[in-house]
């Protein structure tokens, strides 16, 4: 059964009567555009009739019920970084709260991470190591003063990204088949010292020598043809005329 009323107190009063239950056991939905905060105690002394309220103290919700015909407090889970649970169920719209309700806040957490990636240059003679640091975020619920309609707001603290290690960097280089003898650990150490990460050449092979042989002849003096030629006559050899 759905009960429609202009005022929340009227709907709650009718609901508790029809269902014979407490106000906290009713499931309610409030159109924010129609929430009224006018004096709910017309015809009564103000000290005898007070609206309920909700506040957040040290991240916890504190709720007070209204007195006499006052308004019940409501909570608006408007911040996407905080999930709001009412009696164990997540709420996505403005909801009435009472002292008997259990209001729980579950702030989001974005984990910090560090990525290590190694790549070879196009000629496969150098290895470039890149360290990317991505800080995380820890959200929390901001405290709020007493109010009849509480809009949940969040703040956040940055979570530092974890440091990469020498061992992790070497494993990444070995993954792309970089020979250990070519790894420059000093270059890796300098890279790891950069607080925000970065990239650097951490291994370099030996370029091959050009295999095409060239001979260069240098003659210091020009000699006449036949000069220094050996004469074999008289050595027992006969040359024909």
Helical region count? Answer: 3
Main-sheet strand order equals 2-1-12
Q: What is the average per-residue confidence, as pLDDT, rounded to a whole number? A: 82
**Secondary structure tally: strands:** 15
Number of domains: 1
Given the helix and strand composition, which structural class is it? mainly beta
Shape: rod-shaped
Low-confidence stretches: 33-46, 234-241
- For the termini, the CA-CA separation is 140 Å
Largest sheet: 3 strands, antiparallel
Radius of gyration: 43 Å
Explain the overall architecture.
There is one protein chain. The chain has 241 residues and is mainly beta. It has one domain (8-204). The chain is built from three helices and 15 strands. The protein has helices at 8-19, 166-175, 185-192, and strands at residues 53-57, 60-64, 73-76, 82-86, 89-91, 95-97, 103-107, 109-110, 113-120, 126-134, 136-141, 144-147, 149-151, 154-159, 197-204. A three-stranded antiparallel β-sheet has the order 2-1-12, with no helix packed on it. β9 and β10 (126-134) form a beta hairpin. The radius of gyration is 43 Å and the shape is rod-shaped. The N and C termini lie far apart (140 Å). Residues 33-46 and 234-241 have low confidence and may be disordered.
Write the layout of secondary structure elements.
Elements: H1 8-19, E1 53-57, E2 60-64, E3 73-76, E4 82-86, E5 89-91, E6 95-97, E7 103-107, E8 109-110, E9 113-120, E10 126-134, E11 136-141, E12 144-147, E13 149-151, E14 154-159, H2 166-175, H3 185-192, E15 197-204
Parallel strand pairs: 3-13
Antiparallel strand pairs: 1-2, 1-12, 3-6, 4-5, 4-7, 8-11, 9-10, 10-15, 11-14
């Amino acid at each position: 059964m759905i009960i429609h009323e202009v005022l929340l107190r009227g709907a709650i009063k009718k609901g508790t009567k029809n269902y014979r239950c407490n106000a906290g056991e009713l499931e309610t939905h409030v159109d924010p555009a129609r929430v009224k905060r006018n004096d709910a105690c017309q015809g009564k002394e103000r000290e005898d009739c007070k609206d309920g309220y909700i506040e957040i103290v040290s991240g916890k919700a504190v709720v007070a019920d209204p007195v006499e015909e006052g308004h019940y407090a409501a909570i608006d889970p408007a911040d996407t970084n905080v999930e709001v649970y009412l009696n164990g169920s997540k709420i996505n719209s403005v909801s009435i709260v009472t002292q008997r309700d259990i209001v729980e806040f579950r702030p989001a957490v974005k984990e910090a991470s560090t990525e290590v990636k190694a790549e070879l240059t196009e000629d496969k003679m150098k290895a470039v190591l890149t360290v990317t640091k991505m800080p995380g975020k820890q959200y929390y619920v901001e405290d709020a003063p007493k109010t009849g309609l509480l809009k949940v707001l969040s703040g956040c603290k940055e979570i530092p990204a974890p440091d990469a290690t020498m061992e992790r960097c070497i494993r990444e280089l070995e993954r792309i088949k970089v020979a250990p003898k070519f790894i420059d650990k000093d270059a890796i150490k300098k890279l790891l010292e950069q607080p925000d990460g970065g990239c650097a050449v951490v291994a370099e092979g030996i370029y091959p020598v050009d295999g095409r042989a060239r001979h260069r002849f240098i003659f210091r003096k020009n000699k006449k043809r036949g000069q220094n030629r050996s004469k074999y006559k008289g050595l027992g050899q006969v040359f024909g005329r």
